[in-house]
Amino acid sequence: MFRKRKRRTSIKPYRAGRFAGYRQGSPGAGGPEAGAPEAGGPEAGSPETGSPGTGSLTRSLEDNIALFRNIFQQDDTLTLRELDVPGFGKACLVMIDGMTDSDVVNDNIIQPVLMSGRVPVREPEDVGQPKVGEQLKAGGQPEVRGQLEVGGQLAVGGPPEGSRLPEDFKEGRAAWFQKCIIAAKAVSRSSDVSSLCQAVIDGDTVWLLENEPEGLIIDSKGWKTRAIDEPKTETVVMGPREGFNESLIMNLTLIRRRIKTPNLKFEFMLIGRRSRTRVCICYLKEIAKESNLRELRNRLEKIDIDGILSSSYLRELIMDSPYTPFDLTGTTERPDIVSANLLEGRLAVLVDGSPCAMMVPFLFVEYFQANDDYYTNFYFGSLNRILRILGFLFTISIPGLYLSLVTFHHEMVPSSLLMSIYAARQGLPFPTVIELIVMLLLFEILRESGTRLPAFMGQALSIVGALVIGQAAVEARLVSAPTVIVSATAGITELVIPRIKFPSIMIRVLLLLMSSLLGLYGFLFGLIGLLLHLVELRSFGVPYLQGIMSFKKQDLKDTVFRGPWWTMRTRPRNIAREGEWVRQQKGSGGTGK
Amino acid sequence: MKLPKICILLGMLLLLYGCWNYREADSLFLVTGCGLDYDFEKDRYRMTVEIAAPEGSGKNVEIKPKILSADGDTVFDAVRNIIRISSKRLYWGHAQAYIIGRNLAEKSILPLLDWIIRDAEPRETVVLYISKCETAEEIFKEKIPSSRMLAYGIYEMTTSAVSVPKAPYVQVYQLYGMLTSDTGVAYVPAVDITREGGSFTPIVTGAALLDKERLAGFLSEEDTRSLLFLRDEIKGGILPVKTGSGPMSGYLSLEIFKSSTIVTPVFQEDRMSFKVKTALEVAVGGEYEQEKYLSADQTAELENICSQFLKNKLEDFISRLKQDYGLDAVGFGEVLKRRKPGLWKEVKSNWNEETFRDIDVQMDVKVTLRNTGQYLKGL
Amino acid sequence: MPRQKEILSNWSGISLLGMFMMGTSIITMAGKDAGMDVLLALPMAAVANILLAFMYTRILTLYPGKSMMDLQEMIFGKLSKLFYLLTVWIALHVATMTLILFGEFIQVVSLPETPRYFICGFIAALAIWLVKDGLEVMGRWAGFAFPVFLLIITGVSLLSIEDIRLDTLGPFLSKGLHPLLTGTFPLIALGLAFFTEVFNHLGNSRKTFRVFLFGILLTTFSLFFVYLRNISVLGMSFTQSLYFPSYAAVGIINIGNFLQRIEVAVSVNFILVGFIRLSICLYVASKGISRLFGFQDHRAITAPVAFLVMAFTLFAFRNIVELSEWVNSTYPYYRVPFLFFLPLVTWVAGEIKARKDRRKATLPPAL
Amino acid sequence: MLKIAFFITIITIFVFVDLIPALRRRNIRYAAAFLAFSCLALSICILTELGVKIPSPAKPIKTAVDALLRR
Q1: Which chains touch A (3 or more CB pairs under 8 A)?
Q2: pLDDT in tens, D6-26
């Protein structure tokens, strides 16, 4: 882990190739931090890490090529491009088709290499500095080509003599290629087969040379990614429309573009013995709580799993209370939400290949917050929040309350209402509790099939659902009309907050069962238990219910109500670092305040 | 440690699934009201209940009133015996009117009152009536043309008495309070049957005066209004005032907006008297002899006439209360108890019989005219 | 599993205290035998409670962070086991009473056919869960439930304004001082002694007394309004003749024929506060028992102690008549030795020991 | 009968929650206390179910207090 961090400081440009380096350091080159705990570092070279090759390259190119062929047996995406470099002999490019950017390979690797034997002799002082890249960047290749053509002096018989390029050849020919020829932004050397293999898998190109025990790992990653568009699940009325896609680096850019401070930190980790997924912890160094960060790193390092395909894998692996149905980590596909969370002092975890970022700590009240609240008028935002809270309360309680009122506490229903329920229930075959359970189940089935169904089949589903369940069942006197109304209300209110769907289904059923036992008292016991469970939960040490029912004025600003921005002077308690609670200095902003 | 906790809840729910009090609405009959009588020949209570019974099937279920009755050794026994006829359990949570027949009320109302308060189902806010007919059964057994619940009709007549103060609205918990007070005098609304156009309609009219647990007599609607004035229970309604004499002359209706009555004991030279101060704020709702009362002076005159009229009414009522019944329905005793607890202890043992008959009452009625409706000048 | 020291916030402390003190009075109207004088008894009892709170605060602050049991262990050594035993006894007794009242209330008021042990079982299971989660969770739970409780009390009392008849109040002190005293005594919350096991967890031990004071005042105010409402709505005689006057008083509310039949709000309130009362008793009992046996952690013993309480409910009182007679006439006196003299002895002994310790500390060692 | 079943159920649940972890951690004394208390509770339950009148401590205390205060 530490190696990654160390490397980060030395490599500046961020793009897909930003990682090229860290893998090729030979194991154990820990440097000063070698004593730090390293929980199953992925490059430990153990057999499970997924890199089949071990050992080092040999001097024979034939052997090396055979080695790679052997490792990537039956993998026909492996592409070997053999070259004959004038003056150097045979060379070979090893890459995987589809993972590499053809332009980079063609223009920045093959072309300079092929030309290298003909390059006019340069002054020694030019050598050793990564001028080539810059030159290419500035002028582009045509200039080089032109130069060659004009010069017409083809330096055949490339084997460089010591007098020509004395500095570079001291380090070996590979180093010379690395520094002087290859026009890629990150090139490193390695002789370790496993790291070379890993590089190939990651989409880099490995460059092998005859009679050279070191290979070059050239950054040439490039593949197609989805365009940045608005997430389907989190639409917003007013506000940014960008959403994460599956490329980690792209996602990080989206965050970086919103918070432009060097204090925004991105720490990388590799998780997954086989998938070797890159995972990034982002935080704002001055605001995030150090202890939370340490805890998060700790928990992530403890993970031992063979594959991570989405951030949801991580969420379940690092939850404080693994059995709770509630989310203890936030999740979003929107960079603006992640940025807002970072600014509150939270930590975000992004996973390569998953558009969902995970944020910790997560509080219960965040279920009811939506980014739209912050982009619209604060009255409207507060109203929406209250509606969401009501929606949650309704969806968990309506079936249970209805059941206990009509089967236990008839005295609480107004006489006229009881009469109509009474009339509606005449001659029905099933007890209310069974009716309710079946109807709720049917609703969930409809909902679930609606989610997975192709859009063109949706209509059929809704027609059948509405007609059969809504009308025919009542008319055939299988279920009573009030039951249909109640379960439909519970189902609709459940959709006010899609994220809390599962816990609310579970609580609703539990409360329903409790109500069928002891009526309203059972319902109340269920609520007591629910509150108890919520109270005992913690997300990264922060009490889950923090912020709800607080009497402190400042705490209420962003919980049940969305206060105007000028009043939100502090960050939520306990989340940001001690003493870093002030979001706005007093008097700043809020004209007229 | 969370999984076991979830197991606790689930295990308890699944293993011990028993719902003792789970009752579907359709397994019950809703009782809307009941009447209680005593059959002195058979020496048994007779309970008549009105239930809301479903009629029809399929989608066209209608709720119609149905009358059932049964005998029993006690009230509760009679209640349970009805189940044998009705085949479903009776549910009392929505019953509003409990009627006691006059025959039984002359003995005691306690059997029913005790059951209402003790049992969990009947509510404390229901109203107990005393029937002016011999039995309560008569009231229920009369044919009702409509599908309305008779008991609810009776109850609504009482609650609407706020704007027509002709019957008191006494809920059972208030009745209990009156009966357990030191004077032990209470009043409840009375029900009777009117015969209009061949159909019999129950009507709530006047009040029944109770001495301890026994019926002492019925008060007319006018007396009931006086009683309500004295007890400061008037919240609105119409006060017809007769300003002249002879037929068709000088009835004036006053709409009451505000009314307050304060009773204070006065002691003068060993003699106890009570001062009743009634203040009324009214508007002229309708009058017959218009020309008379339009100027400011005339308004004052009108106020005087009305005050005098009401004062006479009230004084008349109190004197009749003293002579005919000897029952302190107005609650002078309660006032004395709060003001002079020491003195009360001495007189309370024979308050109704002696002291109350002796006391003087000084009436002070003040009627204030708020407006005369939309009319400035009459025809 | 050693856990880090649990810390109660001040509000949690106030909530626990308030809910514990309301415990059963909110529904049974303790002290209603005093008649009208109970309204005067409430402030008198508050004064007595504050005096008691002085003593309990002193016990807690002699050695900050030490509970009364810790103190007893320091002072009496082996003998302290006797003290634990007495505390456990009374805690179990109060827990049993609370649990029975729960069962009886629910049974009498709305679920007559449901067996009592079944209702009790649910509540006991929840209480075990709460107590096992520890004091901090308990405090936070109370911190959430207490505002709900106060909100319901206020709302319901506001709704019954229409039915309140203040002219039915009085006469006060018509029968001399005796009823006042008999009304005051049950209202004195000797149960506060249990909080000497709870408030040693308060985050700021210097604010202990403030927490006591605020809790007592809040409770007295709430109870006063509840009592006033009940008496003025139902009338004194009806109030006295009911087991659960609050329930009846709220059942009378009828606003525009729409807002009516809301007496279940009282049940909610009673279950919330009674639940905390039960949990505190269970906490103290299991703590005492684990100390008796020399266990480190009370959590392992909580569940069996709760079973024991459940078993006691089966035979302790035959019915609510016996229970209410006991609660009204015997219990207020019976609890005195356990909840008053026991802390008193501890306090006096602790005071002496603290003096000695302080002298020892100031004296130069080994002269 | 249901009463005993109910008691046994609740106790069994907590056997899983409390007793078995205690045994696993070799906390014999916890386990012993757990078993002792649970058995006591269960036997009280069974006795009452069998119709045995267990004398309640409330009664003697009541007579004692009455004797002390209202001589």
Answers
A1: B, C
A2: 888 888 888 888 888 888 888
Residue B228: name the closest of B341, B142, B324, B314 by CA: B314
CA distance B4 to B6: 5
Q: Classify residue A391: in a domain, yes or no.
A: no
Averaged over A308-320, what is the pLDDT? 88
In a domain, A234, yes or no: no
ipTM (interface predicted TM):
0.92
Nearest beta carbon to residue B177 from set C112, C118, C235: C235
Residue of C nearest to B126 (CA): C252
Q: Which of residues 1-40 of C touch A (CB under 8 A)?
A: 11
Collect all residues of chain A within an 8 Å Cβ-Cβ radius of residue C114.
518
**Total of domains in chain C:** 1
Nearest CA to CA, how far is B63 from chain A (Å)?
7
- Distance in Å, alpha carbon of C313 to nearest chain A alpha carbon: 19
Among A278, A254, A313, residue whose Cα is nearest residue A202: A278
Chain B partners of D9 at a C-beta cutoff of 8 Å?
A: 11-12, 15-16
D39 touches chain C (CB under 8 A): no
- Which residues, in sequence order, are bridge partners of residue B89? B28
* Residue where a domain terminates, one of A532, A547, A582: A532
A357 contacts A341 by C-beta, under 8 angstroms: no
Contact between D16 and B12 using a beta-carbon 8 Å cutoff:
no
Overall number of domains in chain A = 3
Q: Which domain holds residue A65?
A: 17-33+49-218
pLDDT score at C44: 93
Q: Say which of B20, B174, B177 has its CB closest to residue C113.
A: B20
- pLDDT beyond 90 at A174: no
Contacting residues for B19 by C-beta, under 8 A, at least 6 apart: A516, A517
Domains of chain B: which residue ranges? 25-219, 221-379
| A520 close contact with C: CB closer than 8 A | yes
Return the pLDDT at D11. 87
Q: What is the pLDDT of residue A150?
A: 35
For B6-43, the DSSP string reads: HHHHHHHHHHT---TT---GGGEEEEEEEEEEEETTTT
Domain annotation covers residue C5: no
**C253-267 per-position pLDDT tens digit:** 888 778 888 888 899
pLDDT at residue B16, as a whole number: 58
Three-state DSSP class for residue D56 = coil
Does residue A530 sit at the C interface (CB-CB below 8 Å)? no
Q: Please provide the CATH number assigned to the domain covering B221-379.
A: 3.30.300.210
Q: What is the percent of chain A with per-residue pLDDT over 90, rounded to a whole number? A: 22
Q: Which of B22, B32, B147 to mutate to test the interface with A (most CBs of A within 10 A)?
A: B22
* D5:B12 CB<8 A: no
CA geometry: angle B99, B102, B105, nearest 5 deg = 80
Q: Does A410 touch chain B (CB under 8 A)?
A: yes
Q: What rounded mean pLDDT belongs to chain B?
A: 83
The residue of chain B with its CA nearest to that of C253 is B125
From the centroid of its chain, how far is CA A433?
42
- Stated length of chain D: 71
CA distance linking residue A549 with residue B81, whole number of Å: 53
Query: B11, D2: Cβ pair inside 8 Å?
Result: no
Whether C36 contacts C113, CB under 8 Å: no
- Whether B and D touch (3+ CB pairs < 8 Å), yes or no: yes
* Range A377-401 burial, b when 16+ CB lie within 10 A, else e: ebeebbebbeebbebbebbbbbbbb
Give me the DSSP letters along B178-229. HHHSSS-EEEEEEEEEEEETTEEEEEEEEEEEEETTEEEEEE-HHHHHHHHH
B16 and chain D: CB distance < 8 Å anywhere?
Answer: yes
In a domain, A347, yes or no: yes
| Separation of alpha carbons C269 and A205, rounded Å | 71
CATH of the domain at C295: 1.20.1740.10
